[in-house]
Amino acid sequence: MKKIFILLSLPFALILTNCNSSTQGKTNTTNSSVTALTTETFKTNVFNYQENLTWKYEGKLPAIIDFYATWCGPCKKISPLLEDLAVKYKGKIIVYKVDVDAEPQLAQSMGVSSMPTLLFIPVTGQPQQSIGLVPNETLEKMIHEILLVQ
Q1: Is 19 a catalytic residue?
Q2: What is the pTM (predicted TM-score) of this model?
Q3: For residue 114, what are the contacts with CB-CB under 8 A and spacing of at least 6?
Q4: Backbone phi, then psi, for 51, in 5-degree steps?
Q5: Which long-range contacts (CB under 8 A, 24 or more apart) does 102-108 make?
Q6: Which residue among the candidates 63, 72, 78, 94 is catalytic per the annotation?
Q7: Sequence-distant (≥ 6) Cβ neighbours of residue 22 within 8 angstroms
Q8: What is the pLDDT of residues 135-148, one digit of tens each?
Q9: What pLDDT is recorded for position 107?
Q10: Per-residue pLDDT averaged across 44-64, rounded?
Q11: Known catalytic membership, residue 75
Q12: What does the alpha-carbon distance between residue 70 and residue 17 come to, in Å, rounded to a whole number?
């Protein structure tokens, strides 16, 4: 029974994934609070690494960027945690995601080589990376300590 459920769920999950990948930097219309970024929207909303030699954040709110791959197990586990945090801290932080397979040059430019990689970006100061699956309590602690959001 469990195998049948999984087999029946797989096409539905693939449809949702395909719908999600076509957002082109906009918030997913299926009630997602996380915004997908392309290289172009990254340069506009976060950091134009081709024009600036030093870090210059383009956003107005602190941000978390999830560099993920669709085939990555830990990425799939952290995704709902980030969705929940995006809702909880709405108006205080922005949560973005970047598919490293769709945007390999962007991932390479940001020094991402392992998934998931989270980039915590305060409004002022330098961003900080977290690599691997991180528990929700640690994510909240990082939001408070790195992004200075209460």
Answers
A1: no
A2: 0.79
A3: 131, 132
A4: -100, -30
A5: 102/21, 102/38, 103/37, 103/38, 103/39, 103/42, 105/39, 106/37, 106/38, 106/39, 106/42, 107/67
A6: 72
A7: none
A8: 999 999 999 999 99
A9: 96
A10: 95
A11: yes
A12: 8
Tell me the pLDDT of the chain averaged across its residues.
Answer: 84
Please give the single-letter amino acid code of residue 80. Answer: P
Closest to 66 (Cα-Cα) out of 53, 91, 84, 48: 84
* pLDDT grade for 31, boundaries at 50, 70 and 90: low
Which domains, from first to last, does the chain contain? Answer: 2-145 (3.40.30.10)
Per-position b or e across 76-86, b if 16+ CB within 10 A of its CB = eebbebbbebb
**Cβ density class 44-59: b for 16+ within 10 Å, e for less:** ebbbebeeeeeeebee
SS (H, E, C) the chain: CHHHHHHHHHHHHHHHHHHHHCCCCCECCCCCCCEECCHHHHHHHCCCCCCCCCCCCCCCCCEEEEEECCCCHHHHHHHHHHHHHHHHCECCEEEEEEECCCCHHHHHHCCCCCCCEEEEECCCCCCEEEECCCCHHHHHHHHHHCCCCC
Active-site option among 46, 75, 93, 121: 75
Q: How many residues does the chain have?
A: 150
